[in-house]
Amino acid sequence: MTSDTGTATARRAPRPRADALRNRERIVTAAREMFVESGSQVPYDEIARRAGVGNATLYRNFPERADLVREVVLSLVARVAELAERAAAEEADTFAALRRFIHGAADERVGALCLMLDGAFDRDHPDLVAERDRLEGVVQGIVDRAQRAGRLRADVGVGDLMLAVSQLTRPLPGTACAAFTPFVHRHLQLFLDGLEAPARSELPGTTATLEALRRDSCPS
Questions:
Q1: How far apart are CA 13 and CA 52, in angstroms?
Q2: What distance separates the 2 farthest-apart alpha carbons in the chain?
Q3: Alpha-carbon distance 188 to 185, whole Å?
Q4: Which residues pair with 196 in a beta bridge?
Q5: Is the separation of the CB atoms in 98 and 146 below 8 Å?
Q6: What is the pLDDT of residues 166-201, one digit of tens each?
Q7: Are 109 and 154 in contact (CB under 8 A)?
Q8: In angstroms, what CA-CA distances link 160 with 153, 167, 211?
Q9: Are 138 and 84 in contact (CB under 8 A)?
Q10: 136 to 59, 201, 212: CA distances (angstroms)
């Protein structure tokens, strides 16, 4: 049973102010952009400048760099999960939902960001695991519906999709993101054309699973 004192303490816990939440969101957005551009070791003062906040505000929200990196990853996974949910809910054509999700994930710079993260964060943090499970569940639903409708070839899985999105949105070594970006959606469409059923060839190997990919790759 919870004591009256404990209940009163919980009731008095202050809610974050709206301006504090906006500052935190600006910091995470700026960090995500700069991680893509310069890597996750970009100086804190540069992130603060991009976000339009003071260094003290940045350190108050994220005293450790690993905290900021984890929040950037969490934000990315949540945003991609949300666009997957919208695609599933709003597209009547099952393959159109898949296409919309793939191109939307590319717009979030998934591959470019994964390339820049050094892994110095808790990949098993409960919040991150929850969002990752949410994303995987929604995408699995999109894949299942497209395959049941005969619109998606039967020999691919969610792991194949996420790996391809990560690879096809990742700049080539020595290539700036700005120079690579114009080709991303073009190459993704070529990939999507190869996913439609009926399949024109037999794929070598086995279907990629998210569990296998997660052991050696950035969060999907």
A1: 28
A2: 68
A3: 5
A4: 152
A5: yes
A6: 888 776 555 555 555 667 888 888 888 888 888 777
A7: no
A8: 12, 11, 12
A9: yes
A10: 32, 27, 14
Q: How far apart are CA 100 and CA 108, in angstroms?
A: 13
Tokens of 3: 């004591």
What six digits make up the tokens of 9?
Answer: 């303490």
Stated pTM of the model: 0.77
Strand partners, 152: 196
Which three-class secondary structure state does DSSP give residue 173? coil
DSSP letter assigned to residue 196: B
Query: What are the Cα distances from residue 9, in Å, to 1, 5, 13, 91?
Result: 15, 6, 6, 46
- 59 near 44, Cβ under 8 Å? yes
Give the model confidence (pLDDT) of 112-149 as tens digits: 676 666 566 788 889 989 999 999 999 999 999 999 99
Three-state SS for 161?
A: helix
